[in-house]
Write a structure and sequence with these properties.
The protein is of the alpha/beta class and 144 residues long. It has one domain: Rossmann fold. It contains 5 helices and 5 strands. Strands 2-1-3-4-5 form a 5-stranded parallel sheet, with helices on both faces. The longest helix has 15 residues. It binds 1,3,4-trihydroxy-5-OXO-cyclohexanecarboxylic acid (DQA). The site of 1,3,4-trihydroxy-5-OXO-cyclohexanecarboxylic acid has 10 residues, from loops. 1,3,4-trihydroxy-5-OXO-cyclohexanecarboxylic acid (DQA) binds next to loops.
Length: 144
Amino acid sequence: MKILVINGPNINLLGLREPQIYGKEDYNFLCESITDFANKKGIEVENYQSNHEGDLVDAIQNAYNKFDGIVINPAAYTHTSVAILDAVKAVGIPTVEVHISDVSKREDFRQVSFIRLACVKTISGHGIKGYLEAIDYLIENYGK
Ligand code: DQA
């Protein structure tokens, strides 16, 4: 099984960025944790991050016929992007939405998630561990 992990804007600044909300670990630590976890589970994983909406759409489109699952934290684009929602719908790859913080307990504008409409599961507020739970969910439900 091959899983693509996609992170949106400002996730590259983990550790520096509002550590009281997003924690002290940086983006490299996140990628290493994901890669180590995938290795232990015997699956392939690729990490991708961009601050640009169109690049995220391209990454989802390019996953077609190459990946069996997507884990995505679209960050701020969660709350605005119909283009990212449509890309996930278009490729039809089982996708799990992840948020490091518990968005349900934050500002009103974070209560809307466009991408959720196309996702098989949402994990929110579990920190970096949420990405590993998402990978586990994809393995258990879509692994081959
Ligand atoms: C986030 C939550 C979003 O509202 C925010 O814009 C982010 C990160 C999270 O992981 O908790 O950039 O997706």
